[in-house]
Each structure stands twice: as C-alpha cells, then as structure tokens.
Amino acid sequence: MKILSHTGNPQSAIRNPKYYAWIGWIFALIALLLGVVVLSLAVGAVDIPLRKAFFLLTKGQGTPEYAILFEVRLPRILLGFAVGGGLAISGVILQGMFRNPLVEPYTLGISGGAALGVCLNIVVGGADVLGPLATPVCGFVGAAGVIFLVYAISARRGGIRLSRLLLIGVMVSFMASSLIMLVMAVTKTEDLHGIIFWIMGSLEEPNPFLIKAVLIISLIGMLLSFIYAVDLNTLSLGEEEASYLGVEVERVKRAIFIIASLLTGCCVAVSGVIGFVGLVVPHLMRLLVGGDHRVLLVASYISGAAFLILCDTVARVVIAPMELPVGVITGLVGGGLFIFALSRKSYTF
Amino acid sequence: MGGSKDTLRVLFTVAFFFVSFSHALSFPLKAKGDLERSLEIVHPPQRIVSLVPAVTEELYLLGVGDKIVGVTIYCQRPPEARAKEKVGTVIDVNIEKIIELRPDLVIASPLTDHKQIRKLRRLELRVEIFDAPTDFQGLCEGFLTLSQFVGKEQEAEEVLERTKRKLKAIKKEIEGIAKSLVFVQIGANPLFTADRASFINDLIKCAGGINIASDAKIGIYSREEVIKRNPDTILIVTMGIVGEREKEVWLKYESISAVKNGRIFTVDSYRVCSPTPISFVETVKELARLFHDRH
C-alpha cells in the first residue's frame, strides 16, 4: 500500500498532480451517485415517468404518484445513502487500523450484538413499551453493549492489542449468533418472521425521524474519521513505526475504533444487517483511488452510498411486486464486481 | 487470562438468564387485536386490498369479491381471485403497488412486515390486521368482524348458521366412537408439529381425534416422543415438504400403531392452514372420515 506523507513544502504539495486525480475521482463518483439516485427514483413496481416528477413536486401533493416518489422511494434512497456511506467508511477505518483485508464492520460482533438486542426485543414484546422506536433502540443498545464488552475485555493494562481485540470480537460475534439461534428456537412463529426480516436487513423505514438521525450521524462520522485520515495512513506502516513518527497510537486506535463501531451500530440498528458493503466497497476504492485515507474515506463514503442505493433499487424491481432482501444483491453484485476488479489489476492490501 | 475467563462466565450466565427471562415474559404479552380499534364504519369500503388468502376467500363468501382490488400471489381461491392485481406475498408486500391501487381498506396479517404496515398507516391508508384464529370460535368471530367491515353482517350470520349446523351433525355422527390418537406433522428437519395454540389442534378435536402434541409448548417435537405416545393416525400436512417422502420415513417405525395399520395420510396444507368457516367444516368432515374409517 502506498503511504502518504507529503515531504517538501506545502506549496509544491498542492500542485502535486495526484491531488488533481483525487479531485477528478471524487467528482466522477459524485456524478455516479447522482445518476444512481435518479435511476432509483425513476424505477419501481409502478411506472412513473421522471418528466412527471417536476410537475408532481409543484402540484402533485396528495396524488398516489407523489406519495410513491417522495414518501416511498426518496426515504429509501436517503437511508441507503446514510447506511451505505456509513458502513463503507467503517470498513475503511477498521481495515486500516487492523491492517487486515478481511475485517469489516460486522467482524467485531457489532451486528451480532444488535441482532441479539432486536431478537430479545421482538420476543419480549418491547414494542408495547417503547413503540416503533423499540427495534432501533434495542439494536443500538445491543451493538453498544458488544462494543463496550469487546473493548473492555481487550483493552486492559496499557493499550489495545489489535490481534486480541480482533479475536475477542470474533468470539463475541459467535456467541451472539448462538444466542440468537437459541432465541429463535424457542420463539413463536409470528415473532420468528420479525426476527428473520430484521436480520436480512432492509432500507424500508417508516419513521422519517430515524432516517434523519442516521443521515446526520453518518455524515458526522464521515467528518470525524476524516480528521484521523493522516493518522490512519501512518498507522498502516505499523504501530511501532507510527509511534516513532509521532502518532499517539493508543489514543488514535481508541478514537477510530469507537467512531467506526458507533457508526456501524447506528446503521445496523435502523436498517438491519446489510452485509458486504463494508467489506467490498473499501477494497474496490483502494483499487480505484489508492490507499491514501484522505481520498479513500471520501471516495468510499460516496461509492458506498451509491452502491447500496443501486443494490436496493435492483432488489426492489427484479421480481416486482415482490422484493428481494437487499443483502442478496449486495453480496452478488459486490462479490462479482470485486472478483472482476481483482482479476484485472494487481492488488496488494 | 483467569480474569477474562471469569468475565466470560459471568457473561454467559447473564445472557442465559436474560434469554430465559425474556421468554418467560413473552407469553402474557400477546398482541392486542387491532380489530377492536375502529369498528365505526360510515360506508362500506369500495376498494379492498387483502393480504391474507383466507380473508380473500371470505370476502368472496360475503359477496364482496368485486370490491377487492389487490391480493397476494397466494390468494388462489376462489379461482376469480387469481385475476386480481398482485401486490406481493403474505409477508412481503409492495407498498408502491398498494398506493397505486388507492384502497380504502387494507387487510393485513400478523405475518406482514410490521415496518410496511406502519409505512402504509403513515401514508394515511386504513390497515386492519387480522389475527390468525387459533380455533373455530376465533375463526367465526374473525369472519363476523370482517363482515362488519364490509357491511355484510346478515350474510355472515347466515353462513355461520349453516356451518355450525353442519358441524353439529358431524359431531353427532362420531359420538360414542373411540377417539383416535393423532400426530400431525407440519414440517420436517426439525420435526414440527401443531401445538395446542394452533388451529390444527381444534380441527382434530372437532373431528373426534386427540392431538398427542397438544401439551407441547413449541412446535419442534421429538420423534422418540411420537413413538412413545403411539398415535393411531399420522397426518402429514404438505407444507413445503414432500408428503410421500416423509411417509417413507415413518414407515421405518413399525411399533407405531399408525404405521402398523397403514394410517398415515397427507393433507393439503391450504385446507388446514388458511381456513374459512366453510372449509373448516369440510375439513372436519374429511378428517372424521379418516380417523374413524376402521369402524
């Protein structure tokens, strides 16, 4: 991986052609994202010509078409943007921190914890107490519980040992899935459906407040992680080397671990376990824009968002009026795309 | 290392406690019936979307089949229902399609994705959830409620009157005949049966049988227990499993009286799983014949 630390004076650094390339990529990806958004608005089980959209915006309130475009399709796009972007940068951060290409946001048991929280909520009937917010709240509590647990166990006596953190995360993840199986085995059939729906993940979220919340959290997460971009670059040299270069390794590790975990926790709590985005998008972007985290984070956020919106659109239309779980498409499209890219270009993590 | 082992042990204990506790809690909190919520009907709905196959069938029985504008792909009965616009499956519906149909009543099942129901309600559509009945009584009540929704109480009363009379006649016929011990298989791998809370339990009772699994708390059932309880009849409901293959499996256990006497039957799943009052009575009649044909 190429490590960036610009030597020489800042003036020459700004004129570095690399930056033009970066800006070019970012604009290209933004254009792609916009294209995907328009496509996603335009297609669905019901045909609505896009030309009509502008008319609907001004005069169409109250018509079924208006409701379909702006109250069914648009919220999904917004949630797809937030979750896709959030999961992708979590993946970038964690892969960079662990220097391990197989790490993704769910590796450390965050999804397992969230799923366990949601399962228990569905079985206990938490919705009667907390209303429609019960599922996301319990999901987040489960995720946060696992983060805290994994962190507390592995961060003892002077700093986090990454290999230990990773192993404990994987173990907690296994334990969570066993407990989920236990809950499912003793659950009533009606409840079982709720659990399976949630585990498969979906961008359908009726509550606009939750969508806004995830959107804001996801953007804040992006900004926060950008602050640590240079530190991440240095960390990828190795922890010892980074500390020689003046990075406060422990503080940085702690901060980025918490950012990535909470971000993932929020995404999972609302949308369920949507796999593959956090694994494949960072790798694809590394192939495309290189390993410098300053551009990698931004590129991953945008393309993660575009990727998830696109997959959700495909999932919506492919067997309409039925819908596929979006995870089916993220896995198939993402995996296929990645293998294709990998076979065409030499890639070392 | 010793410390972390302790932590794990504590965690395990806490988790197990939490899980068992939560399960214990789950029984009394049954979903409250949405049906009671809004019964005042100003005028009967004209555009109905039915997401429950049994409800679709019942709407036709009530004579309002022409008011249905959307159904699920599983709404195959009566044949007329097949021509209606499809809006998805029982558990996963297409919201866009439903909005486009501009229904004034959407009837959903408890299996329908709750998020989708909330979404439809947010879009100011009237969605009523029809709880799956657990016995004939509940089935009749549900049928009556449905008839109130569409303003056809009179018709419903007549239908129920007729079916209850038929049921009584069947019960009279099998009076005094020894009851048959029945095991119902509704799933394989793991072996799955109908517990007390299921509809099938009531079907068997009405047809003069005793469900050997009626004391089971959950549907997963052990084959050993079946052998021990020695049912006279085994019913295989072909729901996603191939009935004949499952029959082969049972044939290996010759100690079971049902196997010895060749009394393993397969039943069509739609008859026992999504009944209307009329099809319920028909099924009872058929089961009664199966249970008692040795006499």
CATH superfamily of the largest domain in chain B: Nitrogenase molybdenum iron protein domain
The CATH homologous superfamily of chain A is called ABC transporter involved in vitamin B12 uptake, BtuC
Strand content of chain A: under 5%
Residue-averaged pLDDT of chain A = 86
Number of discrete domains of chain B: 2
Q: How are the secondary structure elements laid out?
A:
The complex is a heterodimer of chains A (349) and B (295).
Chain A: H1 10-14, H2 17-42, H3 50-59, H4 64-98, H5 110-124, H6 127-130, H7 134-154, H8 162-185, H9 189-200, H10 208-227, H11 229-235, H12 239-244, H13 249-271, H14 277-289, H15 293-317, H16 326-344
Helix pairs in contact in A: 2-4, 2-15, 4-10, 4-13, 4-14, 4-15, 5-7, 5-8, 5-9, 5-13, 7-8, 7-13, 10-13, 14-15, 14-16, 15-16
Chain B: H1 2-26, E1 48-50, H2 53-61, E2 68-71, E3 85-86, H3 95-100, E4 105-108, H4 114-122, E5 127-129, H5 136-149, H6 153-173, E6 180-187, E7 192-193, H7 199-206, E8 209-211, H8 223-229, E9 233-238, H9 243-251, H10 257-260, E10 264-268, H11 269-273, H12 277-292
Parallel strand pairs in B: 1-2, 1-4, 2-3, 4-5, 6-8, 6-9, 9-10
Antiparallel strand pairs in B: 6-7
Helix pairs in contact in B: 5-6, 6-12
Salient structural properties:
heterodimer; A: 349 residues; mainly alpha; ABC transporter involved in vitamin B12 uptake, BtuC; 76% helix; globular; disordered N terminus; B: 295 residues; alpha/beta; Rossmann fold; 2 domains; five-stranded parallel β-sheet; five-stranded mixed β-sheet; 12 helices; 10 strands
